[in-house]
Amino acid sequence: MAKIKLTKTELKAQTDALKRFQRFLPMLQLKKQQLQSEIAGITAKAEQVGAKERAERAALDRWVGLFATDESLVEGLVKVKNVKTGTANIAGVAIPTFESIETEVKEIDLWATPAWVDDAIAATTRILALQSERAVFEEQRRLVTIELQTTSQRVNLFEKVKIPECKEAIRVIKIAIGDEQTAAVTRGKIAKGRAPKEDAA
Hints:
A two-stranded antiparallel sheet has the order 1-2. The longest helix has 85 residues, at 116-200. The chain has helices at 8-69, 71-74, 116-200, and strands spanning 78-90, 93-105. It has a single domain, classed as Helix Hairpins, CATH 1.10.287. Helices cover 75% and strands 13% of the residues.
């Protein structure tokens, strides 16, 4: 604890600081709970998207045999050109939100390629969209986790350092002021006790 002045002014400053910390602490604790809840929600959504992606991949298994006949048909068939995102706010944290993807489909000769290639393009596009959505959820979780760490550090600082320091400073100052007042009263009594003797002399 830093050196404190044993004065009434310092006592007021420490009391005001204690009140401020005690007022902010519940808000920080509430924010911490909210962030923890949001992380759990984001994780659940990411897992749902992951499950959809796995289901799409399982559905694609029927195409695998067809792909094997001419791999050049599907190689780089669909690419993600751009991921469109928006923004949202979670407990003061700006996070990206998934909107859609723009894809680039490899130019193919529709007359020279089998009909299933269209279905393969659609399925691949859906998988790429789900992958992109999952990546956005991962970024959301990363950003909210950083904020949670910062908030947890502040909660610990207030709970374990600042509030106990203020309480200890207030205790020490009150004792010092009390001792000073007692000493002043004692000095006053002594001075009062001496005064008549001096007059009599």
